[in-house]
Amino acid sequence: LASITGGPEGPSRVGMSIVDVATGATAHAAILEALIKRGRTGEGADIRISMFDVMADWLTVPLLNAEAGNAPKRIGLAHPSIAPYGVFTSKDGKDILISIQSEREWKTLCAKVLEQPALPDDPRFANMVERVRNRALTDKIVADRFAALSRDELLTKLAAADIAFAEVNSMADLATHPHLRRIEVDTPNGVVSYPAPAAIVVGDDRRYGAVPAIGEAASPHQQKG
After folding, report:
1. Residue 83 half-sphere exposure toward CB, CA atoms < 13 A
2. Annotated active-site positions, please?
3. Residue 155: is it exposed, middle or buried by C-beta count within 10 angstroms (0-12/13-18/19+)?
4. Sheet harboring 95-99: ordered strands across?
């Protein structure tokens, strides 16, 4: 995982404990599957989950590519087989990621954002294979245009053109993001505001029980929460 994560300068750890989380999520899914099977057959299950097996499963695509002689390269937020796909910086220093995955999108980007409608006629940019082969030049053309426009101007143009894009947010941006749902949890040191559970169950507002103090037994409600 580290070998294909990061930029050309070297491998990188993923920015959160992805192996632990992925293994827990895999165990959770396996337990639910076993419960369904038990409900149908009355038989239990002996489940074994290893971190290695989970990551090997998640790395199926890069592994098969490597075994076929096309080992993945570390390219940051770019994409190995799509161009332009990556982060470009606006005039006011805001990083915006775009993903152009079809010729229709490329033509639209050229006409409505880059303001170079004839660019797709250039053989170097005529299709995805050629754009990937000429990635440095493709990216430079996009980067130069982005650098000439402010963040607000770019977002307006990209949205109007129906181009897939995303801003690269910092943790401070996440903290104030309009889509961030929070849930409050009582702790011995006061109330803490956490990101809410991802699953939304209609008609069943989720909440966590209080975190017990050291030496304090959790109440049945806390255990359930």
Report:
1. 24
2. 79
3. middle
4. 85-89, 95-99, 164-167
Topology (CATH level 3) of domain 85-169: formyl-coa transferase, domain 3 (3.30.1540)
pLDDT digits (tens, 9 = 90+) for 20-40: 999 999 999 999 999 999 999
| Residue pLDDT, tens place only, 131-185 | 999 999 999 999 999 999 999 999 999 999 999 999 999 999 999 999 999 999 9
Query: DSSP labels for 45-109?
Result: ------HHHHHHHHTHHHHHHHHTT------TTSBTTBSSEEEEE-TTS-EEEEE--SHHHHHHH
Token pair for residue 78?
A: 């770019």
Q: Are strands 182-187 and 190-195 parallel, antiparallel or unpaired?
A: antiparallel
Helix, strand, or coil (residue 164): strand
User: Is residue 222 over pLDDT 80?
Assistant: no
Place of tokens 């995805």: 128
3-state secondary structure at position 6 = strand
Q: pLDDT tens digits for 57-83?
A: 999 999 999 999 988 888 888 888 899
Which segments of the chain belong to CATH 3.30.1540.10? 85-169
Tokens of 169: 């947010």
